[in-house]
Amino acid sequence: MLTVYGRPNSSNSAKVFWLLDELGLDYELIPTGRGFGPTDTPEFRAMNPFGKVPVVRDGDTVVWESNAVLRYLAVRHGPTSLWPSEEAERSKVDRWMDWASISLTPPLTRLRKARAAGRSGDGDLPMVLATFTAMNERLAHSDFLAGDRLSLADIAAAPSVHRWFRLPEAGIGLANLSAYAERLADRPGYRRHILDPLS
Ligand SMILES: N[C@@H](CCC(=O)N[C@@H](CS)C(=O)NCC(=O)O)C(=O)O
């Protein structure tokens, strides 16, 4: 049985919960992280020295860093079309996963945190608008980020897509992105782990 250390309101944990649903895998959840269980114990730090969630334990194997967890689960409990084995197809998924982690999510997170703290966060706004506009343009050519079917790339990007639509700027109307969010919402795992629990 897999063990997942994470919390339902954590975007990075939610990605892993969604994939576990897609793969139909049972797991034990140990609620961990801010507001839940501690991450500063020697036992937890021995699993993830950075004290972050999610962490997955699979027998003797421990994996942290959410995108690494997604890839591990896809291989260990696949095969799955969510992370194709053919190199060129896999590279399409990988590039959008990396893009989501490096380019899409950080400016959005800074903006949301600044606003939550009563600051404008406007320094990050041009980058947020540029990345979501680029995503909208990409989605003019395919139903999902890496092609015409759901992949790990969409799971990696999903928390940020959901959070975009909670910003007033979403009113600028990115039609392809809106249609994409509706496609994601067709998936029970997205509704259960991204749409409902993430603010
Ligand atoms: N790059 C890491 C980020 C992990 C991370 O920052 N996780 C947050 C939750 S989304 C966390 O552990 N926050 C501290 C806590 O909950 O105690 C990943 O993708 O797993």
Question: Which helices and strands, and how do they pair?
Answer:
Elements: E1 2-6, H1 11-23, E2 27-31, H2 42-47, E3 55-58, E4 61-64, H3 66-76, H4 87-116, H5 125-138, H6 152-164, H7 175-184, H8 188-195
Parallel strand pairs: 1-2
Antiparallel strand pairs: 1-3, 3-4
Helix pairs in contact: 1-3, 1-6, 1-8, 4-5, 4-6
Glutathione binds next to helix 1.
Keywords:
globular; Glutathione S-transferase Yfyf (Class Pi), Chain A, domain 2; 199 residues; binds glutathione; alpha+beta; four-stranded mixed β-sheet; single chain; Glutaredoxin
Number of helices: 8
Shape: globular
CATH architecture of the largest domain: Up-down Bundle
Instruction: Report the radius of gyration as a whole number of Å.
Output: 17 Å
- How many E-type strands? 4
Strand order of the largest sheet: 2-1-3-4
The residue-averaged pLDDT reads 97
Oligomer: single chain
Name every ligand kind in the structure: glutathione
Helix content: 40-55%
CA(first)-CA(last) distance: 30 Å
The CATH topology name of the largest domain reads Glutathione S-transferase Yfyf (Class Pi), Chain A, domain 2
What is the strand content? Answer: 5-15%
What does this structure look like?
By secondary structure, the protein is of the alpha+beta class. It has two domains: 2-76, Glutaredoxin, CATH 3.40.30; 87-192, Glutathione S-transferase Yfyf (Class Pi), Chain A, domain 2, CATH 1.20.1050. It is built from eight helices and four strands. It has helices at 11-23, 42-47, 66-76, 87-116, 125-138, 152-164, 175-184, 188-195; strands spanning 2-6, 27-31, 55-58, 61-64. The chain has a four-stranded mixed sheet, covered by helices on one side. Helix 1 packs parallel to helix 3, helix 1 crosses helix 6 and helix 1 packs antiparallel against helix 8 (188-195). The two termini are 30 Å apart. 34% of the residues are buried. Residues 10-12, 33-34, 39, 52-53, 65-66 line the site of glutathione (GSH).
